[in-house]
Amino acid sequence: MTIWSEETQVRAKELISRYPDKRSAVMPLLYLSMAEAGHLTDEGMEEVGEWTDLTPAQVRAVASFYTMYKRERTGQYLVSCCTSISCMLLGGDEVLHAVESESGVPHGETDDEGVISVEHVECIGACGGAPAVQVNYELIEGFTPEKGRELVKWLRSARPDSINTDEMQGLFGGSTSFDWGIREEASAIGPYPAFQPFGTVEGKSK
Amino acid sequence: MSAPLVVTRRMTDYPGDSHTIDRYEATGGYAQAKRACSMTREGLVEDIKTCGLLGRGGAAFSAGLKWSFLAPERPAYLVINGDESEPGTFKDRQLLERDPHQMIEGVIITSVANEVHHAFIYIRGEYPKSARRVQTAVDEAYARGYLGKGILGTDYDLEVTVHLGAGAYICGEETALINSLEGKRGEPRLKPPYFPAAKGLYMMPTIVNNVETVSNLPHILEMGAEKFAGLAHEADTGTFMTSISGHVKKPGNYELGHGITWRELIYDVAGGIRDDRELKAWIPGGASAPWFVPDVHLDLEVTKEATAAAGSMLGSGAVIVMDETTCMVRAAERIVRFFSHESCGQCTPCREGTTWLEMILRRIEEGQGRAVDLDLMVGVSDGISIGLAWPPKMTTICPLGPSAVSPIKALKDYFIAEIDAHVEAGGCPF
Fold it and tell me: What is the DSSP string of B261-305?
C-alpha cells in the first residue's frame, strides 16, 4: 500500500533502477517524497523505507543528517541567504537582515500563509558573486540588502509558479562568479532542488 | 607563470554554448575517449603517473598513483566528487555547468583505465543547475553511444549515474561521500581499513576523483603526458583553477600556471584590494587552510611545496582575501561556525571542540570576552589538533575538526592584539 501518486511511483521505480543497490536511492527518494508533500512528512519517510527495505528509524537517521531535507512545513519559496565567510565579508549578514525584516520571517521559520521560508545557510559556492542567495536552490549572485527587500515583495505579489535562476538574476542580481553562458530553461517548483525527476519544469516561469 | 588555458579553454572560446555536445564534438570532443578504448590499462595508468597530475579536490595526491592502488577485486566503481562545499570554492561549479562533456570524457577515460563499468557523479544538493547540465550531457552522451552498452563501438559497457547530495559539507570527504552514496548518513569511515581503493562503494574497490582532476584527462591524452607535465612547474604539473573571493576588485575563477607569487595573484590577477585599501590577511586554500599575512607570505610562490613549507595548503584552490576593515575575530567566528555546523558528530574532539570554539569566539565578538579566552581557545584547539601543528596531528577520523583550528592559529600567531582590543572595549572595535 502506498501513499504516493501513480506518477511518483513510476519516478521512484526509475530512480531505484539507477543504482546497483536500492538503498542508494534513499536520498533521491527523500527528495521525491518532499516534492509529493511539500516537505518531508513522517508518512513520507515511512514510504521511502518501504521502497528501500529500511526501517523508519533508518530513513529518519539519513533524513536528519542532511540540511536540505525539510522535516517541517516549508513555504512555497525557500529563501536561503549565504552568511559564510566570503559572503559575510561583502554584506551577507545585511542581506539576511533585510530579507528577515521585509518578510517578517526569522531564520528557520515560515510565514503563516506558507509562502516564504527564510534561512541563513553556509557556503553555497557563489563566493565570486558574493553576497549570494538562493530561492528554492536557484541562485542569485551579486545581491544587495535593497534587492533582498524587492525579492520578498516580488515573491509575495507575483507568486511565480516556478523559479528560474536566469530570470531572478536579471531582476535582482549583479556580478557573477563567472559568465553563466546561455539562459537555463528549467525552473524549480518547490523548496527542493529542481533535478529530474523531483520537480523541474522546462520552459519559462510565469 | 603563464600557462595556456586547458580546462577553461572551450568555455573561453565559445562562451555561449560550451556545454553542448555539438560544440564539444566540433572542438575535438570524445576523440580521446576513443583513443583510450584502444590503449592498454597499464599504458593509461602509466601516462597519468608520468604527467604528474595531482588531485584537484584538496589533498593534491597523485592521480596516477591513486589509480595504481586500486585493488584487483571486481566490480570496481568510479565516483566523481562534485560535492564542492569548501567555503570560498566555486571552480567545479563552473566546470560542471560550462563544460560537462569534458568531465564525462574524463569519466570514460578513468573508467576504461580502471575496469570500471558503473561511474557515479556526486554533485552537491545546492548545485541543481550543475546537476541538470551534467544530466543533460550524460543523456546526450548515451544517445550518441559514448555511454551505455558497447561504448564507442567497442564491447565495453559503461553506466553513469548522477547523484545529488543534500547539504552536508562532510560528504566532500571521500569515505563520507561513499556512505552517502550508499544511502547512509554522510559520516567518514576509518582509514585503515576503509581505503576506497580497497573497500569503497559497496565495500568494493573504488576510485574517487575530483571534477577538475578528471576534466584534465582528455587534454593529457591529447597533448601527451610529457607536454602536460612541462606546462608550468616542476612538481605541480598542468594548470590549476583558483577561486578568488572577498575584498578584491576582480573576484572569480582563474586557470593559472604554477609558480606565480601571492602578490601577483592578489594584485595582478585579481586586480588588487577594493578601494585600494590595505591587505590584512588571506586564506590560501579554502576555509580549512591556515591563514597568510602580507608581512610574511606575500612574495611566496603559489605552489604546493612553498605553501606547505609555510605551514598551510593550497587545498581546494580557494583564496579568500580580507582587507584592513575586516574584524579578524568575526572572520574567525564565521569559519569556526561553519565547521561546527558541518561536524558530523562522530568524534568527540571535533563535535565538542568546534562548538566550544564557536561559542568563545562569539562571546569575544559580542563583548563578553575574557582575558583568558585566547588560552582557553588554544587549549580546546590542542584537544582537537595536538600542538596546533600543520599538517595536523589527528585526533579524529577525518580532517574536519583540525580545519576549525586554522583560524585560532591565525589569531594566536598574528592577531592577539585584536582579541585584547575586543576584551578591553567590551565589544567589537570595527
Answer: BHHIIIIIIS-SBGGG--EEEEESSSTTSPPB-HHHHTTSBSSHH
Cis (ω within 30 of 0) for the bond into B75?
A: yes
Model-level pTM?
0.97
Residue B104 in grid coordinates: 564525462
Mutation for A interface: B11, B12, B90, most A CBs within 10 A: B90
* CB contact at 8 A, B19 and B140: no
Distance CA B31, CA B104 (A): 12
DSSP character string of B71-113: -S-SSEEEEEEE---STT--HHHHHHHH-HHHHHHHHHHHHHH
Confidence of residue B2 (pLDDT cuts 50, 70, 90): low
DSSP for B212-274, written as a single string? HHHHTHHHHHHH-HHHHHTSS-SSS-SEEEEEEEESBSS-EEEEEETT-BHHIIIIIIS-SBG
Residue type, B35: R
- Residues sharing a CB contact under 8 Å with residue B234, sequence separation 6 or more, in sequence order: none
Total residue length of chain B: 430
- Of the candidates A122, A134, A178, the beta carbon closest to that of B94 is on A178
When CB atoms are compared, the residue of A19, A26, A123 closest to B161 is A19
The C-alpha atoms of residue B24 and residue B9 are separated, in whole angstroms, by 12
Q: Residue B53 carries which DSSP code?
A: P
CA distances from B57 to B162, B209, B244 (A): 18, 8, 16
Interface contact flag, A69 B326, Cβ < 8 Å: no
ipTM of the complex: 0.97
Distance of alpha carbon A30 from the chain centroid:
13
> How far does Cα B183 stand from its chain's mean position?
23
Distance from C-alpha of A149 to C-alpha of B23, rounded to nearest angstrom:
40
**pLDDT of A26 over the 70 cut:** yes
- Residue B216 confidence (pLDDT): 96
* Structure-block grid coordinates of residue B405: 583550528
Quick: pLDDT tens for A30-71.
Answer: 999 999 999 999 999 999 999 999 999 999 999 999 999 999
**Structure-block grid coordinates of residue A118:** 527564510
Rounded to 10 degrees, what is the CA torsion of B59, A126, A72, A146?
Answer: 150
Task: Write the burial class of residue A164 (CB in 10 Å: 0-12 exposed, 13-18 middle, 19+ buried).
Answer: buried
Q: What are phi and psi of B229, to 5 degrees?
A: -60, -30
Contact B252 A180 (CB under 8 A): no
CB B273 within 8 A of CB A90: no
| A53 Cβ neighbours under 8 A, 6+ residues apart | A22, A23
Res A201: pLDDT:
78
pLDDT at A192: 96
Cell reading at A111: 510565514
